[in-house]
């Protein structure tokens, strides 16, 4: 009698994250080093205090509107991969793949590298031997000058540590996320409170006579020739950078308890919470620093400048600690979430096969985590992550717009599909998001056509990779007798 061999049981994700965990992943992934630096950069493009605050409000509302639309999609399809799945289902596998491709090779890995370096820079305030000034290696190859410094090695160490932490289960990773997110929100809250309480600032800093005809950016030099709308859009791109990664929790939807409701609620709560944090922080900065001084702060370290004016020399050190806490938690959130996208792509046969496997004990996509960690480390050591972020700042917004448009497509495509959460204000809210976002995309391209064009090119490079993996997938299916049309 022939023995029946049992197939090994498929390892699946376990739903262990609650609403607080999910909200902390949203907020923690968004709040990094941006709020401590970006306001100064934005002030250079838009040196009008009322409009600076308006930029952060618009950015927050736009992000919240996007989160409301994503909430319905996440409630309808609470699968690992989140936005990748939404784009695949609304359009086709190619568009979903191009998003995941860009996320892995540029957006997420570039953000992880940049935030890790930001952590290292501020660690160098306390340990100079670990700063960017400590050059370890320097050489020239065919006219290309390469410099390796201690901060890059610290950045790689941070990525390795957080990757390791997240290999040992989503609960462990979420615990680290909760701890550091609460800590950085508390640090920003203390700075805001103290600034208004004992900062000896000036309320008149919030108001300034403004005329579009006489509008003139302050810095950087390339901004001086920009018109009002282009400068406004480029300044907004810096705010949107600080608001980015709000969709991270959709990637890990399968690991959330009652995801049909928890994921949408966490998206809305997290984005609104971050908007309040950002607006209050900018108000505190403006209360202490007139906007024209904010625009020319050395290295754009506006938070450190504000803290130093309040507390003296120790203030800059306190902010350095706050930024280290913030960037560490931010990197953890991004490292935790994105490998779920690569896992979903691999399960569809559109990424490295090993990335589609979970650890049998910890139920984490260990191979995807390791791949992400290696590539992020390469970018950290190469020093190219900063350029990649510039090139893809608008592509992230472009994919978000396509995803919100996908909400309309999926309502028509799958009208019978259960929707535990329906987008509030539909269709007005998602239409507003689309129109405002498209406006900024157009003017970001006008204001910085070179970076935007190169960013789009990086996305399109993914097409040959898609063709390769599609053929590999089809050949495998044919061999296994599972050919699908």
UniProtKB/TrEMBL annotation:
GO CC annotations on file: membrane
Keywords, alphabetical: Membrane, Transmembrane, Transmembrane helix
Gene3D superfamilies in the cross-refs: Amino acid/polyamine transporter I
Chief site of localization: membrane
Compartments, record wording: Membrane
A GO MF label: L-amino acid transmembrane transporter activity
Regions that span the bilayer: 19-45, 51-73, 94-120, 153-176, 185-203, 223-246, 267-289, 309-330, 391-411, 423-446, 452-469
InterPro entries attached to this UniProt entry: AA/rel_permease1, AminoAcid_Transporter
Keyword Manganese: no
Pfam families, alphabetized: AA_permease_2 (PF13520)
Membrane topology, from the record: Multi-pass membrane protein
PANTHER family: AMINO ACID TRANSPORTER (PTHR11785), SOBREMESA, ISOFORM B (PTHR11785:SF512)
Name recorded for this polypeptide: Amino acid/polyamine/organocation transporter, APC superfamily
Organism: Kryptobacter tengchongensis
Higher taxonomy: Bacteria, Pseudomonadati, Candidatus Kryptoniota, Candidatus Kryptobacter
């Amino acid at each position: 009698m022939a023995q029946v061999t049992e197939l090994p049981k498929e390892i699946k994700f376990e739903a262990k994250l609650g609403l607080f965990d999910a909200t902390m992943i949203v907020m923690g992934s968004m709040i990094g080093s941006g709020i401590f630096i970006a306001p100064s950069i934005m002030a250079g493009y838009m040196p009008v205090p009322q409009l600076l605050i308006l930029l952060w409000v618009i950015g927050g509302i736009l992000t919240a509107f996007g989160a409301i639309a994503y909430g319905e999609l996440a409630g309808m399809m609470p699968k690992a991969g989140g936005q990748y799945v939404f784009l695949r289902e609304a359009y086709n596998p190619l568009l979903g793949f191009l998003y995941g491709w860009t996320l892995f090779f540029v957006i997420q890995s570039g953000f992880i590298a940049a935030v890790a370096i930001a952590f290292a820079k501020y660690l160098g305030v306390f340990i100079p031997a670990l700063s960017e000034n400590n050059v370890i290696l320097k050489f020239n190859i065919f006219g290309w000058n390469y410099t390796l410094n201690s901060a890059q090695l610290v950045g790689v160490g941070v990525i390795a540590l957080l990757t390791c932490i997240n290999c040992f289960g989503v609960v462990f990773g979420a615990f680290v996320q909760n701890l550091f997110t609460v800590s950085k929100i508390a640090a920003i809250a203390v700075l805001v409170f103290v600034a208004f309480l004992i900062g000896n600032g000036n309320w008149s800093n919030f108001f300034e006579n403004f005329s579009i005809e006489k509008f003139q950016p302050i810095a950087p030099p390339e901004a001086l020739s920009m018109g009002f709308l282009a400068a406004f859009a480029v300044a907004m791109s810096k705010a949107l950078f600080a608001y980015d990664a709000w969709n991270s929790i959709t990637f890990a939807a399968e690991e959330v308890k009652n995801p049909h409701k928890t994921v949408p609620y966490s998206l809305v709560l997290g984005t609104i919470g971050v908007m309040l944090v950002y607006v209050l922080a900018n108000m505190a900065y403006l209360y202490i620093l007139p906007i024209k001084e904010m625009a020319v702060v050395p290295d754009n370290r506006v938070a450190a400048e504000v803290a130093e004016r309040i507390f003296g020399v120790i203030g800059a050190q306190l902010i350095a600690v706050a930024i280290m806490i913030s960037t560490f938690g931010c990197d953890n959130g991004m490292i935790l979430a994105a490998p779920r996208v690569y896992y979903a792509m691999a399960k569809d046969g559109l990424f490295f096969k090993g990335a589609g496997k979970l650890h049998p004990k910890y139920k984490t996509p260990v191979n995807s985590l390791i791949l992400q960690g290696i590539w992020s480390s390469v970018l950290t050591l190469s020093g190219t992550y900063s350029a990649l972020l510039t090139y893809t700042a608008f592509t992230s917004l472009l994919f978000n717009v396509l995803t919100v448009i996908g909400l309309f497509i999926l309502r028509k495509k799958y009208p019978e599909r259960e929707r535990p959460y329906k987008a509030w204000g539909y269709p007005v809210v998602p239409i507003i998001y689309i129109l405002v976002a498209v406006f900024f995309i157009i003017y970001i391209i006008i204001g910085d056509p070179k970076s935007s064009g190169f960013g789009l090119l990086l996305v399109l490079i993914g097409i040959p990779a898609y063709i390769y993996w599609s053929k590999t997938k089809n050949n495998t299916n044919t061999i296994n007798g599972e050919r699908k049309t």
